[in-house]
Amino acid sequence: MDPTRSILHRGLGQCGVSGTLGVSFASDKPVIALGDDGFSMTMMEMLTAVKYSRPIKVVVFNNSKLGLIKIEQQLMGYQEYGTELHNPDFAKLAESMGALGIRLEDISKMGEAIRELIEADRPAVLDAVINPNEVPASPL
User: Whole-model pTM above 0.85?
Assistant: First the structure.
């Protein structure tokens, strides 16, 4: 990861869309990839991005699950509890705010979806529906 081109949001400080919105004032090419719950916590900032014409691009890994929380529960020997999410269609939600919304349910069309996202002339959200049983990232 190139530190001059990447910012890693950790610890909820400037997480999600709001942090990316801030970065968009320094760069005209801000892109963020985050989970569905991370997006849910800050998705209303898409309204701000639209209002101020900030060209942010958001990739939402939508597995309808708190994947890392589930893994942490398993690692601690606990039963999985409270990790299922009931998500809206994030692409439609983005469209309702004036952003471009793209829904991806077929991984073979990922390249096409990413191209459409990057080439959008307005804020855009790619709602990438993924397998809830895949490990989202290393919890360590």
Answer: no
